[in-house]
Design brief:
4 domains; 6-stranded mixed β-sheet; single chain; 3-stranded antiparallel β-sheet; 596 residues; alpha+beta; binds iron/sulfur cluster
Length: 596
């Protein structure tokens, strides 16, 4: 059942005793002062059995805080567990006593798994936005200007070449087949002459062939493909004996599906047998261990394997208002409108306009925003036409259906044939007379073929013309600056570790991004509160403790042989800023990082 934290603060909780030592303006101190405001145990009640059933859990508000600390410090689950047990900064942030060991590693992992399975990571992120609203960081009446951007995330799965990818797929299937027949993996593989796939050496190392010989390479590949096909046949037989939909059947089907996908994407059949497919399939899976990873491209030279993080940022407050993770090969503009709508919903503030780079400046995205009644400001990509005049050198008047070329000639409007008689005619482009172009002195810089030049009108030409006019005017400069907000926030997320996925799969990677975005927002809020001089005033408990310490100090003067614990309390909690080597010997003290 749900375990709850008491609303009363204990005198021996670390945040009461050591907040001054850790620093109220550190992230740990900020979490300590706001802990009850950020998370409530009741928010996570649906993860637990009804009250009265079973033992109380570890308070979920404490575990959620630990996940944020883990993201902030970029530590493993084991390290997070140890820091919660021995690090004063974590104890202050968690609000636990020095002696307390608040959770086991598996407890933290289970809690995170529940958040991922129930897609509740977003709830933690939303709390950071709710806090921003509650503190007036996002005024209710203010309309937001959003900036959108993306960055890549390297996937968790190992990326391998086709030989080793096939071998990994074969091991996946072998493992599930051995499991379903209650056999040892090594024995199961050896019985089928496939022990080379499960040996400690890599398949290619085991092969010991002359890699310069195309014949030997082809023989090795054919052997692997034959083994893979044999195993897939075996899976079909084995699945016939399992009840459809059972967990064993599902696992076997999943492993076989990954192996089949590698065969389909990387192998083609030829007369001489199997051979490597030329080129890269668009949806190629580069790792069987994380089948959702994809080959992506950040620029012409820069390639990566993994996923893509998308963010929306309020350009004024710099708060991250929405995040998502899409496939590594997805275009940057996928789901752009969804991010805007999510921002409006979660930040509870209207979005006046959205700013983005030219990856969002295509006609379809502009049309989607226009249809939704939203303003999008995104640069139009530069149009090139080799050595010849680009389309932008022609003056196109859509209302008058006129197009004038650099030589001053007027093109003939061409229309698309209407599909139905009632359909309005649609301008498709302009054609310049062949005789005009033949006599034109500019022809070498305009036309490559024999006839006249043609200019195609884009389906969203009007929107693109509007965007071009804006970006050529001085009014565009503020938008260029506003867009940098998203770049800065992406840099902060990279600092918090999102460049490398910690987990396998897109759902868990999205969770990682949500945690990083929450920490980025909270540090921003804390910095803002400090700058505005709005730190939380001393709590009644702290005031009471201060008075108590004075009394204890008086008692020690009168009673020199008093208890060690009270002495310690008087030294550290009363003085507030001094530290004892004996007390902190077991704690990992390092200078607290300032806010970003
Ligand atoms: S070649 Fe034709 S379209 Fe090009 S500038 Fe000359 S007349 Fe105009």
């Amino acid at each position: 059942m749900l375990g709850r934290r008491s609303d009363q603060r204990g005198l021996f909780e670390a945040d009461v005793q050591y907040l001054d030592v850790v620093g109220e303006d550190s992230f740990y101190g900020f979490l300590a002062t706001l802990r009850r405001e950020v998370f409530r145990d009741e928010d996570f009640a649906e993860f637990y059995a009804e009250d009265g059933n079973g033992r109380p859990s570890r308070p979920p508000s404490l575990l959620a805080t630990a996940l944020l600390l883990q993201t902030y410090d970029r530590v493993s689950d084991q390290e997070a567990t140890e820091r919660a047990a021995f690090d004063v900064r974590w104890k202050v942030a968690l609000g636990i006593t020095i002696e307390e060991r608040p959770f086991a590693k598996s407890t933290l992992q289970l809690f995170r798994a529940q958040l991922v399975v129930h897609e509740e990571g977003a709830r933690i992120f939303e709390r950071s936005l709710a806090l921003a609203r509650a503190r007036g960081f996002v005024p209710r009446q203010r309309r937001m200007r959003l900036a959108l951007d993306t960055t890549y995330i390297l996937g968790r799965g190992a990326v391998k070449d086709t030989y080793n990818l096939l071998a990994d797929g074969i091991v996946l299937v072998l493992r599930e087949l051995a499991r379903s027949t209650a056999s040892e993996l090594a024995a199961y593989a050896a019985a089928r002459g496939m022990d080379r796939y499960v040996s400690e050496r890599s398949l290619k190392g085991e092969a010991e062939l002359d890699w310069d010989s195309a014949e030997e390479r082809a023989r090795l590949l054919q052997g692997i493909v034959t083994d893979a096909e044999r195993l897939l046949d075996e899976v079909r037989t084995q699945r016939g004996e399992l009840s459809a939909g059972s967990p064993e059947d599902a696992r076997l089907a999943q492993a076989a599906e990954r192996l089949s996908q590698v065969l389909l994407q990387d192998i083609e059949r030829a007369d001489g047998g199997a051979q490597l497919r030329q080129g890269v399939a668009r949806e190629r899976m580069p790792s069987v261990h994380d089948p959702e990873m994809r080959h992506g491209r950040k620029s012409a030279q820069h390639r990566f394997d993994g996923h893509k993080a998308q963010i929306a940022v309020d350009t004024e407050s710099q708060l991250i208002t929405a995040v998502d993770v899409v496939a590594g090969n997805a275009p940057d503009n996928r789901g752009a409108l969804d991010l805007v709508e999510a921002s409006e919903r979660d930040a509870a503030a209207e979005v006046s306009e959205t700013v983005a780079d030219c990856a969002y400046g295509d006609g379809a995205t502009r049309q989607a925003f226009a249809d939704a009644g939203r303003a999008l400001v995104a640069k139009v990509a530069v149009t090139r036409n080799g050595e010849c005049f680009p389309k932008t050198d022609f003056t196109i008047d859509l209302d008058a259906e006129r197009c004038v070329c650099p030589a001053g000639q007027q093109g003939i409007a061409c229309y698309r044939r209407p599909a139905a008689p009632a359909e309005r005619r649609v301008l498709r482009g302009f054609r310049f007379r062949a005789e005009d172009c033949a006599a034109c002195p500019l022809r070498p810089r305009c036309v490559r073929g024999r006839g006249g030049r043609t200019i195609v009108v884009h389906p969203q030409e009007a929107l693109i013309q509007q965007a071009r006019a804006l970006q050529a005017s001085p009014d565009f400069a503020p938008y260029r600056r506003a867009r940098q907000a998203a770049e800065h926030r992406l840099a902060r997320l990279v600092q918090l570790g999102i460049r490398q996925a910690r987990y396998v799969g897109r759902a868990k990677t999205r969770f990682q991004l949500l945690m990083a975005a929450t920490v980025a927002n909270l540090t921003l809020l804390a910095g803002h509160a400090r700058a505005a001089g709005r730190e939380t005033p001393p709590s009644p408990a702290a005031t009471l403790l201060s008075a108590l310490c004075s009394l204890i100090a008086l008692q020690i003067v009168i009673w020199p042989h008093g208890g060690a614990r009270w002495r310690r309390l008087a030294t550290h909690a009363g003085a507030g800023t001094r530290s004892s080597p004996a007390l902190f010997a077991h704690a990992r003290m390092a200078p607290c990082r300032p806010y970003f």
